[in-house]
Amino acid sequence: QVQVVESGGGLVQPGGSLRLSCAASGINVSSYSMNWFRQPPGKQRELVAVITRGGNTNYRDSVKGRFTISRDNAKNTVYLQMNSLKPEDTAVYHCNAASRWWGQGTQVTVSS
Are the C-beta atoms of 20 and 6 separated by less than 8 Å? Predict the structure, then answer.
């Protein structure tokens, strides 16, 4: 049984940082493309960052230079480091494995 579990969300002031974690079981994160999505309030889910099996990364334009996706194969965990957060980054962030398996999401709220 495959499970992905996100953690690390919370309330942060504009300009602050958070690191989200996505711990996987039942699969090896190094064997699949791992993705972070987010769903802002009242909006559709959108792709934020991708890390491929080969370690290549890609980001949506609005987070380039601020967010970094990475992978720790030994911990079987994928991270999303988010810096210089803005109110428009407020959303539920979901981890997705291989476009198949989804986590339950973690809330990120950026507000003063």
Answer: yes
Instruction: Note the pLDDT tens digit of each residue in 62-73.
Output: 999 999 999 999
Tokens coding 57 = 């990364």
Q: Provide the token pair at 61.
A: 């334009």
What is the distance between the alpha carbons of residues 48 and 88, in angstroms, rounded to a whole number?
13
- Report whether 91 contacts 45 (CB < 8 A): no
Is the pLDDT confidence value at 99 over 90? no
User: b/e map of 83-99 (b: 16 or more CB within 10 Å)?
Assistant: eebeeebbbbbbbbbee
Whether the per-residue pLDDT at 106 is higher than 90: the answer is yes
Nearest alpha carbon to residue 97 among 44, 58, 50: 50
Q: How far apart are CA 63 and CA 51, in angstroms?
A: 15
Per-residue pLDDT of 31-61, as tens digits, reads: 999 999 999 999 999 999 999 999 999 999 9
